[in-house]
C-alpha cells in the first residue's frame, strides 16, 4: 500500500492557507465595495493585501518549497548562454528557408500524386 504523503504536512499550514484565501477574498470584495473611492487607494489596498497573503503563503511548507524552486530556477537561467542577435536572426532565416523549401517540395509532390491518381482512375480534377 502506498502512503499518501501529500496530506502529512504541518497542521498549521491549513490555517495559514485559510488566512491567505481570506486575505485575497477580502481584497476582491473590498475593491468592489469601495468602488466609489479613489482607484489609487483601492489599488494600494489590494497590493498590500496580496503582498501580505504572499508572505503568509511563503511561510507554509509548500510556499517554502516553491521559493526554493524559484531560487534554483533563477540560478539555472543565469547559467544559460543566450544567442546573440545576429545568431538568432541567422537561425530564424535558416528555419524560414527550410520551411519554404519543404512546403514547395510537398506542393510539387502533391501535384504529381494528384496527376498519377487521376491517370490511374480516369478522374480529371
What does this 3D model show about the protein?
This protein has 125 residues and is mostly helical. α1 runs antiparallel to α2. The chain is built from four helices and no strands. The termini are far apart.
Span of the ends, CA to CA: 64 Å
* Parts with pLDDT < 50 across at least 5 consecutive residues: none
Secondary-structure element order, N to C: HHHH
Shape: elongated
- Helix share of residues? over 70%
Strand % is under 5%
Overall structural class, as computed from helix and strand content, comes to mainly alpha
Q: Determine the mean pLDDT.
A: 90
Q: Give the helix tally.
A: 4
Largest sheet: none
Extended strand count:
0
Radius of gyration, whole Å: 29 Å
List the helices and strands and how they pair.
Blueprint: H1 11-33, H2 39-58, H3 61-79, H4 85-121
List keywords for this structure.
single chain, 125 residues, mainly alpha, 0% strand
Task: Please give a quick description of this structure.
This protein is mainly alpha-helical. It is 79% helix and 0% strand.
Amino acid at each position: 500500500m502506498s502512503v499518501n504523503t501529500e496530506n502529512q504536512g504541518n497542521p498549521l499550514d491549513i490555517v495559514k492557507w485559510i488566512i491567505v484565501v481570506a486575505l485575497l477574498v477580502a481584497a476582491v470584495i473590498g475593491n468592489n465595495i469601495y468602488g466609489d473611492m479613489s482607484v489609487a487607494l483601492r489599488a494600494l489596498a489590494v497590493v498590500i493585501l496580496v503582498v501580505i497573503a504572499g508572505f503568509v503563503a511563503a511561510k507554509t511548507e509548500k510556499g517554502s518549497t516553491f521559493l526554493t524552486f524559484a531560487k534554483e530556477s533563477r540560478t539555472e537561467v543565469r547559467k544559460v548562454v543566450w544567442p546573440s542577435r545576429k545568431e538568432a536572426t541567422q537561425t530564424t532565416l535558416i528555419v524560414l528557408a527550410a520551411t519554404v523549401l519543404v512546403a514547395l517540395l510537398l506542393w510539387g509532390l502533391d501535384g504529381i500524386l494528384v496527376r498519377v491518381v487521376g491517370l490511374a482512375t480516369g478522374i480529371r480534377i
